[in-house]
Design goal:
278 residues; seven-stranded parallel beta sheet; two-stranded antiparallel sheet
Length: 278
């Protein structure tokens, strides 16, 4: 039996299976992917289907994904948690620049607030730790924003277990985003820290960037056939079963694929299924 919800930061209850907006941007998360009306329809349908956690970032587009979220969903439902990220500046579809100085983080957060048309961002995530800036200064900037009511909770993206423990000693961290899926479990140690401390773990590339939806894999195909489900649905269901803190936010620009992803929450894996997938 799995629990369908998670209490983010011990306060905000969200459905564990959410929606991520990265696929609303083009190749390299740069520019638009398709028609704006299609992106707006997907966002609205996600909320209609009960999604209460939407994950985005200021550099998807850049800025485009946040603008789409606001256009589609503002004014926001009371139970919807918006999660966005700052700390990385994009100058092309292949250029990522870490920018973690306190004044940069404040400016990025305030710009996201304007684009999202909100006074408080439910979950603000440091997209990458800046090796040139002391961690205490980076988290201190986010703590100031939290004290001002501009951030509800603080999250981290792409950290080691050791970095996460250091961060927890400096600030009230509510979540982590690391790459984690059925065929990539390198962040098991980070997951353990999250479980111990009651942190949400939002796995990015929950479908291994498409690798789990195509090709063949005997165990995955067998379990999928047993449930009359797709490979991707089984991969998402496995995440929900793997740990109660895992909150996958698969992204798509397709209404049909959105429906398929969200239906994964209804799949009930058996012990035999889990053993095969393990």
């Amino acid at each position: 039996m799995i629990v369908d919800t998670f209490r983010l930061g011990g306060e905000r209850t969200v459905r564990r299976l959410g929606y991520g907006t990265a696929q609303l941007a083009g190749r390299g998360y740069w520019g638009p992917r398709g028609e704006r009306a299609d992106a707006l329809a997907v966002l609205r349908r996600a909320v209609e289907r009960g999604v209460t956690l939407i994950d985005t970032a200021d550099n998807y587009g850049p800025h485009l994904a946040e603008e789409l979220v606001a256009e589609a969903l503002h004014p926001y439902p009371a139970d919807l948690v918006l999660a966005t990220k700052g700390g990385v500046v994009r100058t092309s579809d292949s250029a990522w620049h870490i920018a973690g100085r306190p004044e940069q983080l404040r400016a990025m957060c305030e710009a996201s607030l304007r684009r999202l048309r909100t006074e408080t961002i439910g979950l603000y995530q440091l997209h990458r730790l800046d090796p040139e800036v002391p961690l205490a200064e980076q988290l201190g900037a986010l703590e100031e924003l939290r004290a001002e009511g501009k951030i509800g909770h603080i999250g981290l993206d792409t950290v080691t277990a050791g970095q996460l423990r250091k961060a927890l000693a400096l600030a009230p961290i509510a979540s982590v985003q690391n790459r984690f899926n059925l065929i990539d479990r390198e962040s098991e140690a980070v997951l353990e820290v999250c479980e111990t401390n009651g942190l949400a773990f939002l796995p990015w590339f929950p479908l291994a960037n498409g690798a789990l939806t195509g090709g063949t894999a005997a165990a995955l195909d067998t379990v999928a056939a047993r449930h009359g489900a797709s490979r991707g649905q089984i991969a998402l269901a496995w995440l929900l079963y793997r740990s109660p803190v895992l909150c996958p936010t698969p992204g798509t620009g397709s209404l049909a694929h959105l429906e398929e992803n969200l239906d994964a929450a209804t799949i009930r894996l058996t012990e035999a299924d889990l053993t095969a997938l393990r």
